[in-house]
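To the team - zinc ion complex, inputs and output below.
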Amino acid sequence: MSNWKDIFAHPVGLKLYVMHTGSVHMSGNIHFNKKSPEFKSMPKDKRFNPVLAYAVVHPGKGLALLDTGVHSSFCDRPFGNFGPLLGRIVKIKAERGRDAASQLKSLGFSPPDVRLVILSHLHLDHTSGLPDFKGAEVYVDADELKAAGSHAAMLEGCAKAHREGATINTFRYGPAVEPFDRVCDFFGDGSLFVVSTPGHTRGNAAVILNARGGPILLTFDAAHRKANLDLMIPPKGDYERARRSLGAIKSFVEAFPRARVVYGHDPDQLGELELAPSFYT
Ligand SMILES: [Zn+2]
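Output:
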């Protein structure tokens, strides 16, 4: 499979549940890279940005969780499972029953049903829910895993404690599928593709689902919100690499204008999304 058009000619009966697990309270310009010329004109007021997790049900492989969202401990204590240092900086709004484990339960799945967790990157708002899925095989980009072990990564928002006791594997990327340089056909059946989109973090990844209703691109933090793409302002992180990844996403969206795109933390998109228990097919 060397091009998306051929891939999308053979869609798979996937179900995608979008779970709004909580919100992160941050200034309005947090989603834009400081090196971009437009950064100064971005709004600075604090706002709540959604933290999403996704459940994908594959007809043969069962349930996969994509990112893990906000942990339920934020309902009981202000720093939740971020710890006092990062918890003071990153303010979370949580609601009982919204964390991924609780939402999956109301969809009829229990935590042991989650055998597979795919992480877009290792920032704490994406790994917070991971301790609820101890039995799962966890997958992440190899560069991301390597980088996240450093002290600097901890200061940038990677919480090692979330990964304690987890079995962590790394994506095996195959050749390029334009416009993405490195693509992992995760199940080997053309249903779920992890595409390498580094920049926001060292090994940030996005996901493309080859669903019957049309392709779905989950940008995760390669584009926090639609404005990143519209204005071509990369997210925080390595400016050049993030801009290159954003450019690949833009080319993909232009080539497949009917693809559904779900952004990482877009407060303006939240109201338009069909949230779980509704689902996309
Ligand atoms: Zn992030």
